[in-house]
Sequence to fold (477 residues):
Amino acid sequence: WKAAMLERAAALFSHRAANLHAAVYGERAVGPPASQRLPRAELEAPSSDGDEDDDGDLFRPREAVRGMQGPPSGLEDCSRAWAAWDATLAAWADDAAVEGLRNRFVTGDWAAAEER
Amino acid sequence: MLRFQGAEHFRQRLVFSTLSGRPIRIDGIRPHAESPGLQEHEASLLRLIEKVTNGCIIEINETGTSLRYKPGFIHGGPGIEHDCGTSRGVGYYLEPLALLALFGRSPLSASLRGVTNGGPDPGVDVFRAVTLPLLRQLAGLEDGLELRIEARGAPPLGGGEVRLRLPCVKALPPVALTDEGMVRRVRGVAHSMRVSPQAANRLVDGARGVMNKLLADVFIFTDHMSGRASGLSPGYGVALVAETTSGRMLCAEACAELGKASQSTAEDVGRAAAAALLEEVSRGGVADSMHQALVLTLCALGPEEINEVRLGPLTPYAVGTLRHLRDFFNVQFSIRPEEETRTIFLSCVGAGVKNLSKKIA
Fold:
Protein backbone atom coordinates (compact mmCIF):
# COMPACT_ATOMS: atom_id res chain seq x y z
CA TRP A 1 0.00 0.00 0.00
CA LYS A 2 2.97 2.24 0.46
CA ALA A 3 3.83 2.18 -3.21
CA ALA A 4 1.25 4.63 -4.41
CA MET A 5 1.42 6.82 -1.34
CA LEU A 6 3.07 9.74 -3.08
CA GLU A 7 0.60 9.61 -5.94
CA ARG A 8 -2.35 9.44 -3.62
CA ALA A 9 -1.05 12.31 -1.55
CA ALA A 10 -0.52 14.38 -4.67
CA ALA A 11 -4.02 13.54 -5.86
CA LEU A 12 -5.44 14.50 -2.52
CA PHE A 13 -3.69 17.82 -2.46
CA SER A 14 -4.49 18.77 -6.03
CA HIS A 15 -8.07 17.86 -5.26
CA ARG A 16 -7.98 20.18 -2.30
CA ALA A 17 -6.52 22.95 -4.38
CA ALA A 18 -9.30 22.58 -6.90
CA ASN A 19 -11.78 22.75 -4.12
CA LEU A 20 -10.38 25.85 -2.50
CA HIS A 21 -13.43 27.74 -3.67
CA ALA A 22 -15.66 25.21 -1.95
CA ALA A 23 -13.49 25.36 1.13
CA VAL A 24 -13.88 29.11 1.38
CA TYR A 25 -17.51 29.50 0.41
CA GLY A 26 -18.95 26.02 0.90
CA GLU A 27 -21.20 24.92 3.71
CA ARG A 28 -18.85 22.25 4.92
CA ALA A 29 -16.07 24.58 5.82
CA VAL A 30 -18.27 26.99 7.72
CA GLY A 31 -18.04 26.48 11.43
CA PRO A 32 -16.42 27.88 14.48
CA PRO A 33 -12.63 28.00 14.35
CA ALA A 34 -10.80 25.20 16.09
CA SER A 35 -9.99 27.38 19.07
CA GLN A 36 -13.70 27.96 19.67
CA ARG A 37 -14.73 24.34 19.60
CA LEU A 38 -15.15 22.64 22.90
CA PRO A 39 -13.34 19.39 23.56
CA ARG A 40 -15.42 16.40 22.59
CA ALA A 41 -15.64 15.10 26.15
CA GLU A 42 -17.15 18.38 27.24
CA LEU A 43 -19.88 18.15 24.61
CA GLU A 44 -20.78 14.56 25.24
CA ALA A 45 -20.88 14.51 29.00
CA PRO A 46 -21.73 17.93 30.28
CA SER A 47 -23.56 16.60 33.32
CA SER A 48 -21.41 13.60 34.18
CA ASP A 49 -19.79 15.36 37.07
CA GLY A 50 -23.10 16.58 38.42
CA ASP A 51 -23.00 13.86 41.06
CA GLU A 52 -20.12 15.42 42.86
CA ASP A 53 -21.34 17.29 45.90
CA ASP A 54 -18.79 19.97 45.43
CA ASP A 55 -20.38 23.39 45.21
CA GLY A 56 -17.24 24.87 43.82
CA ASP A 57 -17.42 22.62 40.81
CA LEU A 58 -21.10 23.08 40.16
CA PHE A 59 -20.65 26.23 38.16
CA ARG A 60 -17.48 26.58 36.28
CA PRO A 61 -16.78 28.60 33.19
CA ARG A 62 -16.65 26.48 30.11
CA GLU A 63 -13.92 28.60 28.61
CA ALA A 64 -11.48 27.48 31.28
CA VAL A 65 -11.71 23.94 29.97
CA ARG A 66 -9.95 24.91 26.76
CA GLY A 67 -6.47 23.63 26.20
CA MET A 68 -3.60 25.92 26.91
CA GLN A 69 -2.05 25.45 23.50
CA GLY A 70 -2.82 27.67 20.60
CA PRO A 71 -3.54 31.35 20.55
CA PRO A 72 -4.80 32.98 23.72
CA SER A 73 -8.55 33.50 23.86
CA GLY A 74 -9.96 36.79 22.65
CA LEU A 75 -7.97 36.66 19.43
CA GLU A 76 -10.94 35.81 17.26
CA ASP A 77 -10.79 39.27 15.78
CA CYS A 78 -7.20 39.99 14.87
CA SER A 79 -5.78 40.55 11.41
CA ARG A 80 -2.39 39.23 12.42
CA ALA A 81 -2.11 35.47 12.18
CA TRP A 82 -1.01 34.04 15.47
CA ALA A 83 2.26 32.14 15.33
CA ALA A 84 4.46 30.88 18.09
CA TRP A 85 7.81 32.66 18.15
CA ASP A 86 9.98 29.70 18.87
CA ALA A 87 8.43 27.73 16.01
CA THR A 88 9.15 30.54 13.54
CA LEU A 89 12.63 31.04 14.92
CA ALA A 90 13.39 27.32 14.73
CA ALA A 91 12.09 27.10 11.17
CA TRP A 92 14.44 29.83 9.94
CA ALA A 93 17.42 29.06 12.16
CA ASP A 94 18.87 26.70 9.62
CA ASP A 95 20.87 28.19 6.76
CA ALA A 96 19.48 25.81 4.14
CA ALA A 97 15.97 27.13 4.70
CA VAL A 98 17.20 30.69 4.37
CA GLU A 99 19.15 29.86 1.18
CA GLY A 100 15.94 28.36 -0.26
CA LEU A 101 14.50 31.84 -0.32
CA ARG A 102 17.45 33.27 -2.22
CA ASN A 103 15.55 33.59 -5.49
CA ARG A 104 12.91 35.76 -3.89
CA PHE A 105 15.58 38.39 -3.23
CA VAL A 106 17.41 40.54 -5.73
CA THR A 107 20.61 38.76 -4.77
CA GLY A 108 19.22 35.55 -6.28
CA ASP A 109 18.62 34.27 -9.77
CA TRP A 110 16.47 36.77 -11.67
CA ALA A 111 15.48 34.29 -14.37
CA ALA A 112 14.10 31.86 -11.81
CA ALA A 113 12.16 34.67 -10.19
CA GLU A 114 10.67 35.71 -13.53
CA GLU A 115 9.02 32.34 -13.87
CA ARG A 116 6.90 32.74 -10.79
CA MET B 1 -31.21 42.37 8.51
CA LEU B 2 -28.16 40.11 8.54
CA ARG B 3 -27.71 37.82 11.51
CA PHE B 4 -24.43 36.51 12.86
CA GLN B 5 -23.27 34.32 15.67
CA GLY B 6 -20.30 34.77 17.94
CA ALA B 7 -17.65 37.40 18.48
CA GLU B 8 -15.39 36.66 15.52
CA HIS B 9 -14.78 39.38 12.95
CA PHE B 10 -16.61 41.89 15.11
CA ARG B 11 -14.89 44.88 13.53
CA GLN B 12 -15.48 43.70 10.00
CA ARG B 13 -19.15 43.10 10.60
CA LEU B 14 -19.60 46.63 11.90
CA VAL B 15 -17.55 48.21 9.11
CA PHE B 16 -19.17 46.24 6.30
CA SER B 17 -22.58 46.94 7.78
CA THR B 18 -21.83 50.66 7.79
CA LEU B 19 -20.43 50.65 4.25
CA SER B 20 -23.27 48.58 2.83
CA GLY B 21 -25.97 50.27 4.90
CA ARG B 22 -27.38 46.95 6.00
CA PRO B 23 -28.35 46.56 9.67
CA ILE B 24 -26.99 43.54 11.50
CA ARG B 25 -27.73 41.51 14.56
CA ILE B 26 -25.04 39.51 16.34
CA ASP B 27 -26.08 36.88 18.86
CA GLY B 28 -24.14 34.58 21.10
CA ILE B 29 -21.21 36.87 21.89
CA ARG B 30 -19.14 34.79 24.33
CA PRO B 31 -22.16 33.33 26.16
CA HIS B 32 -20.05 30.82 28.08
CA ALA B 33 -16.99 32.88 28.84
CA GLU B 34 -15.86 33.82 32.29
CA SER B 35 -16.74 37.41 31.49
CA PRO B 36 -19.59 36.99 29.02
CA GLY B 37 -20.69 39.40 26.35
CA LEU B 38 -18.93 42.31 24.71
CA GLN B 39 -15.51 43.12 26.01
CA GLU B 40 -13.93 46.43 26.80
CA HIS B 41 -12.31 46.92 23.41
CA GLU B 42 -15.47 46.03 21.52
CA ALA B 43 -17.50 48.51 23.54
CA SER B 44 -14.78 51.05 22.91
CA LEU B 45 -14.94 50.39 19.18
CA LEU B 46 -18.70 50.94 19.24
CA ARG B 47 -18.13 54.31 20.92
CA LEU B 48 -15.56 55.21 18.27
CA ILE B 49 -18.01 54.29 15.50
CA GLU B 50 -20.62 56.48 17.17
CA LYS B 51 -18.11 59.33 17.01
CA VAL B 52 -17.38 59.05 13.29
CA THR B 53 -20.91 58.29 12.10
CA ASN B 54 -24.20 60.11 12.32
CA GLY B 55 -27.43 58.50 13.38
CA CYS B 56 -26.35 54.94 14.02
CA ILE B 57 -28.43 52.92 16.44
CA ILE B 58 -26.75 50.41 18.74
CA GLU B 59 -28.79 48.19 21.01
CA ILE B 60 -27.13 45.76 23.38
CA ASN B 61 -28.95 43.32 25.63
CA GLU B 62 -28.44 43.19 29.37
CA THR B 63 -25.65 40.65 29.42
CA GLY B 64 -23.98 42.05 26.34
CA THR B 65 -24.21 38.77 24.46
CA SER B 66 -26.28 40.14 21.60
CA LEU B 67 -26.11 43.35 19.66
CA ARG B 68 -28.23 45.11 17.09
CA TYR B 69 -26.56 47.68 14.93
CA LYS B 70 -28.28 49.96 12.45
CA PRO B 71 -25.66 51.95 10.59
CA GLY B 72 -25.77 55.68 10.10
CA PHE B 73 -23.83 57.93 7.74
CA ILE B 74 -20.11 58.36 8.06
CA HIS B 75 -19.26 62.01 8.58
CA GLY B 76 -15.60 61.77 9.51
CA GLY B 77 -14.40 65.26 10.25
CA PRO B 78 -11.68 66.81 12.34
CA GLY B 79 -11.06 66.73 16.04
CA ILE B 80 -12.08 63.20 16.89
CA GLU B 81 -10.49 62.03 20.10
CA HIS B 82 -10.69 58.53 21.43
CA ASP B 83 -9.22 56.68 24.35
CA CYS B 84 -8.72 53.13 23.16
CA GLY B 85 -8.18 51.59 26.56
CA THR B 86 -5.51 49.02 27.11
CA SER B 87 -7.16 45.69 26.33
CA ARG B 88 -6.22 45.93 22.65
CA GLY B 89 -3.71 47.99 20.75
CA VAL B 90 -4.38 51.12 18.72
CA GLY B 91 -3.98 48.95 15.60
CA TYR B 92 -7.26 47.24 16.45
CA TYR B 93 -9.04 50.57 15.96
CA LEU B 94 -6.95 51.94 13.11
CA GLU B 95 -7.86 49.13 10.71
CA PRO B 96 -11.65 49.63 10.75
CA LEU B 97 -11.25 53.39 11.04
CA ALA B 98 -9.18 53.53 7.86
CA LEU B 99 -11.90 51.78 5.84
CA LEU B 100 -14.68 53.92 7.28
CA ALA B 101 -12.77 57.15 6.75
CA LEU B 102 -12.41 56.53 3.01
CA PHE B 103 -16.17 56.71 2.62
CA GLY B 104 -16.72 59.64 4.96
CA ARG B 105 -18.30 63.00 4.25
CA SER B 106 -15.19 64.98 5.05
CA PRO B 107 -11.57 64.04 5.67
CA LEU B 108 -10.96 62.39 9.01
CA SER B 109 -8.53 63.62 11.57
CA ALA B 110 -8.44 61.65 14.78
CA SER B 111 -6.28 61.28 17.82
CA LEU B 112 -6.15 57.84 19.43
CA ARG B 113 -4.63 57.07 22.81
CA GLY B 114 -3.63 53.68 24.13
CA VAL B 115 -1.20 50.85 23.43
CA THR B 116 0.70 51.71 20.26
CA ASN B 117 3.18 48.82 20.10
CA GLY B 118 2.95 45.30 21.34
CA GLY B 119 0.06 42.97 21.99
CA PRO B 120 -1.68 40.95 19.30
CA ASP B 121 -2.54 43.85 16.99
CA PRO B 122 -0.36 45.41 14.32
CA GLY B 123 1.80 48.17 15.71
CA VAL B 124 1.60 51.77 14.58
CA ASP B 125 4.92 51.49 12.72
CA VAL B 126 3.46 48.79 10.50
CA PHE B 127 0.38 50.91 9.90
CA ARG B 128 2.48 53.92 8.94
CA ALA B 129 5.03 52.08 6.82
CA VAL B 130 2.82 49.55 5.03
CA THR B 131 -0.91 50.03 5.55
CA LEU B 132 -1.01 53.72 4.64
CA PRO B 133 1.04 53.37 1.41
CA LEU B 134 -1.14 50.39 0.48
CA LEU B 135 -4.28 52.42 1.05
CA ARG B 136 -2.82 55.33 -0.88
CA GLN B 137 -2.20 53.12 -3.86
CA LEU B 138 -5.33 51.00 -3.81
CA ALA B 139 -7.65 53.91 -3.10
CA GLY B 140 -5.92 56.13 -5.66
CA LEU B 141 -5.15 58.89 -3.20
CA GLU B 142 -2.55 61.57 -3.69
CA ASP B 143 -1.86 62.92 -0.25
CA GLY B 144 -3.57 63.64 3.01
CA LEU B 145 -2.70 60.32 4.61
CA GLU B 146 -0.67 60.71 7.72
CA LEU B 147 0.00 58.94 10.95
CA ARG B 148 2.01 60.86 13.49
CA ILE B 149 3.28 59.08 16.56
CA GLU B 150 3.13 61.59 19.38
CA ALA B 151 3.95 59.12 22.12
CA ARG B 152 4.50 55.41 22.26
CA GLY B 153 2.81 53.15 24.75
CA ALA B 154 3.61 49.54 25.50
CA PRO B 155 1.28 47.09 27.19
CA PRO B 156 0.05 46.73 29.89
CA LEU B 157 -0.47 50.42 30.69
CA GLY B 158 -0.20 52.01 27.26
CA GLY B 159 -0.07 55.77 27.36
CA GLY B 160 0.80 56.26 23.70
CA GLU B 161 -0.86 58.64 21.30
CA VAL B 162 -1.13 58.77 17.52
CA ARG B 163 -2.71 61.30 15.20
CA LEU B 164 -4.31 59.96 12.06
CA ARG B 165 -5.34 61.96 9.01
CA LEU B 166 -7.19 60.27 6.17
CA PRO B 167 -8.91 61.77 3.14
CA CYS B 168 -12.12 60.43 1.64
CA VAL B 169 -12.77 59.10 -1.86
CA LYS B 170 -15.74 59.11 -4.22
CA ALA B 171 -15.20 55.56 -5.39
CA LEU B 172 -12.28 53.15 -5.50
CA PRO B 173 -10.20 52.54 -8.64
CA PRO B 174 -9.83 49.02 -10.03
CA VAL B 175 -7.21 46.82 -8.41
CA ALA B 176 -4.70 44.75 -10.34
CA LEU B 177 -1.90 43.52 -8.16
CA THR B 178 -0.36 40.32 -9.41
CA ASP B 179 3.34 41.10 -9.64
CA GLU B 180 5.16 40.13 -6.48
CA GLY B 181 8.63 41.19 -7.56
CA MET B 182 11.81 40.37 -5.72
CA VAL B 183 12.79 41.76 -2.36
CA ARG B 184 15.21 44.59 -3.06
CA ARG B 185 15.66 46.12 0.34
CA VAL B 186 14.59 45.84 3.92
CA ARG B 187 13.77 48.81 6.10
CA GLY B 188 12.59 48.87 9.64
CA VAL B 189 12.05 50.76 12.84
CA ALA B 190 13.28 49.54 16.20
CA HIS B 191 11.55 51.31 19.04
CA SER B 192 12.28 51.35 22.72
CA MET B 193 10.73 53.21 25.59
CA ARG B 194 11.45 53.27 29.31
CA VAL B 195 14.38 50.90 28.82
CA SER B 196 18.03 51.50 28.06
CA PRO B 197 18.46 53.22 24.67
CA GLN B 198 20.89 50.42 23.91
CA ALA B 199 17.96 47.98 23.56
CA ALA B 200 17.06 49.39 20.15
CA ASN B 201 20.60 48.81 18.87
CA ARG B 202 20.53 45.24 20.11
CA LEU B 203 17.22 44.68 18.30
CA VAL B 204 18.83 45.94 15.12
CA ASP B 205 21.82 43.62 15.59
CA GLY B 206 19.56 40.59 16.02
CA ALA B 207 17.45 41.37 12.98
CA ARG B 208 20.41 42.27 10.75
CA GLY B 209 22.17 39.05 11.68
CA VAL B 210 19.43 37.07 9.99
CA MET B 211 18.59 39.38 7.09
CA ASN B 212 22.19 40.04 6.05
CA LYS B 213 22.56 36.41 4.98
CA LEU B 214 20.31 37.25 2.04
CA LEU B 215 20.56 40.95 1.49
CA ALA B 216 23.04 43.70 2.20
CA ASP B 217 20.58 46.55 1.85
CA VAL B 218 19.09 46.36 5.32
CA PHE B 219 18.60 49.52 7.26
CA ILE B 220 16.74 49.73 10.53
CA PHE B 221 16.11 53.05 12.18
CA THR B 222 16.21 53.25 15.94
CA ASP B 223 13.58 55.28 17.72
CA HIS B 224 14.13 55.71 21.41
CA MET B 225 11.40 57.61 23.16
CA SER B 226 11.97 59.37 26.44
CA GLY B 227 10.05 61.54 28.83
CA ARG B 228 6.35 62.03 28.21
CA ALA B 229 6.55 60.41 24.78
CA SER B 230 7.58 57.08 26.24
CA GLY B 231 4.21 56.11 27.66
CA LEU B 232 3.56 54.36 30.93
CA SER B 233 5.17 50.92 30.52
CA PRO B 234 8.60 49.74 29.45
CA GLY B 235 8.85 47.94 26.14
CA TYR B 236 10.78 47.50 22.95
CA GLY B 237 10.29 45.87 19.59
CA VAL B 238 11.03 46.08 15.91
CA ALA B 239 8.97 46.28 12.72
CA LEU B 240 10.58 45.20 9.45
CA VAL B 241 9.40 45.95 5.92
CA ALA B 242 10.64 44.13 2.82
CA GLU B 243 10.20 46.26 -0.30
CA THR B 244 10.11 44.43 -3.62
CA THR B 245 11.10 45.49 -7.11
CA SER B 246 7.43 45.84 -8.04
CA GLY B 247 6.80 48.17 -5.14
CA ARG B 248 5.00 45.75 -2.87
CA MET B 249 5.73 45.74 0.83
CA LEU B 250 5.71 42.82 3.21
CA CYS B 251 6.05 43.42 6.89
CA ALA B 252 6.61 41.56 10.10
CA GLU B 253 7.14 42.69 13.63
CA ALA B 254 8.01 41.44 17.06
CA CYS B 255 7.77 43.10 20.44
CA ALA B 256 9.22 42.03 23.76
CA GLU B 257 6.72 40.72 26.27
CA LEU B 258 8.28 42.23 29.33
CA GLY B 259 5.63 41.30 31.87
CA LYS B 260 5.52 37.64 30.89
CA ALA B 261 7.34 34.77 32.53
CA SER B 262 9.36 33.82 29.47
CA GLN B 263 11.97 36.52 29.12
CA SER B 264 13.75 36.94 25.85
CA THR B 265 16.69 39.15 25.03
CA ALA B 266 16.52 42.08 22.64
CA GLU B 267 18.58 40.11 20.11
CA ASP B 268 16.03 37.29 20.24
CA VAL B 269 13.22 39.73 19.55
CA GLY B 270 15.14 41.08 16.55
CA ARG B 271 15.79 37.58 15.26
CA ALA B 272 12.13 36.65 15.74
CA ALA B 273 11.05 39.65 13.67
CA ALA B 274 13.51 38.74 10.92
CA ALA B 275 12.35 35.11 10.94
CA ALA B 276 8.75 36.26 10.71
CA LEU B 277 9.71 38.46 7.75
CA LEU B 278 11.34 35.50 5.99
CA GLU B 279 8.18 33.54 6.67
CA GLU B 280 6.13 36.29 4.98
CA VAL B 281 8.46 36.34 1.97
CA SER B 282 8.25 32.58 1.64
CA ARG B 283 4.46 32.69 1.73
CA GLY B 284 4.51 34.89 -1.33
CA GLY B 285 1.80 37.15 -2.66
CA VAL B 286 1.56 40.91 -2.99
CA ALA B 287 0.57 41.46 0.64
CA ASP B 288 1.68 39.92 3.89
CA SER B 289 -0.68 37.84 5.99
CA MET B 290 -1.62 40.86 8.06
CA HIS B 291 -2.88 42.81 5.05
CA GLN B 292 -4.66 40.07 3.13
CA ALA B 293 -8.03 41.06 4.55
CA LEU B 294 -7.54 44.74 3.69
CA VAL B 295 -6.51 44.00 0.10
CA LEU B 296 -9.44 41.65 -0.42
CA THR B 297 -11.84 44.19 1.04
CA LEU B 298 -10.62 46.97 -1.24
CA CYS B 299 -11.01 44.60 -4.22
CA ALA B 300 -14.57 43.80 -3.27
CA LEU B 301 -15.50 47.44 -2.69
CA GLY B 302 -13.92 48.43 -6.00
CA PRO B 303 -15.64 49.22 -9.31
CA GLU B 304 -17.78 46.75 -11.23
CA GLU B 305 -14.95 45.36 -13.27
CA ILE B 306 -12.35 42.69 -12.71
CA ASN B 307 -10.18 43.27 -9.68
CA GLU B 308 -7.38 40.80 -9.26
CA VAL B 309 -4.77 40.12 -6.60
CA ARG B 310 -2.24 37.44 -5.88
CA LEU B 311 -1.87 36.28 -2.32
CA GLY B 312 -0.01 33.64 -0.37
CA PRO B 313 -1.87 30.95 1.57
CA LEU B 314 -4.97 32.55 3.05
CA THR B 315 -5.09 33.16 6.77
CA PRO B 316 -8.22 32.16 8.71
CA TYR B 317 -8.95 35.87 9.07
CA ALA B 318 -8.81 36.36 5.30
CA VAL B 319 -11.15 33.41 4.74
CA GLY B 320 -13.57 34.94 7.23
CA THR B 321 -13.27 38.22 5.34
CA LEU B 322 -14.14 36.51 2.05
CA ARG B 323 -17.27 35.06 3.61
CA HIS B 324 -18.34 38.37 5.07
CA LEU B 325 -17.74 40.13 1.75
CA ARG B 326 -20.09 37.61 0.15
CA ASP B 327 -22.72 38.12 2.85
CA PHE B 328 -22.67 41.91 2.84
CA PHE B 329 -21.80 42.89 -0.73
CA ASN B 330 -22.69 39.73 -2.63
CA VAL B 331 -19.16 39.58 -4.02
CA GLN B 332 -17.71 36.15 -4.66
CA PHE B 333 -14.10 35.81 -5.59
CA SER B 334 -12.97 33.31 -8.13
CA ILE B 335 -10.02 31.52 -6.61
CA ARG B 336 -7.27 30.09 -8.75
CA PRO B 337 -4.48 28.43 -6.82
CA GLU B 338 -1.09 28.02 -8.45
CA GLU B 339 0.48 24.74 -7.45
CA GLU B 340 4.11 25.49 -8.05
CA THR B 341 4.52 28.68 -6.11
CA ARG B 342 1.68 27.92 -3.70
CA THR B 343 0.15 31.31 -4.30
CA ILE B 344 -3.47 32.08 -5.06
CA PHE B 345 -4.90 34.38 -7.68
CA LEU B 346 -8.15 35.87 -6.48
CA SER B 347 -10.35 37.92 -8.76
CA CYS B 348 -13.77 39.42 -8.38
CA VAL B 349 -16.18 41.88 -9.88
CA GLY B 350 -16.35 44.65 -7.32
CA ALA B 351 -19.52 45.85 -5.65
CA GLY B 352 -18.95 49.38 -6.92
CA VAL B 353 -19.46 51.00 -3.54
CA LYS B 354 -19.73 54.76 -3.93
CA ASN B 355 -19.31 57.46 -1.39
CA LEU B 356 -22.75 59.03 -1.31
CA SER B 357 -22.09 61.49 1.45
CA LYS B 358 -18.99 63.23 0.18
CA LYS B 359 -19.39 66.95 -0.12
CA ILE B 360 -19.15 68.26 -3.66
CA ALA B 361 -16.03 70.32 -3.69
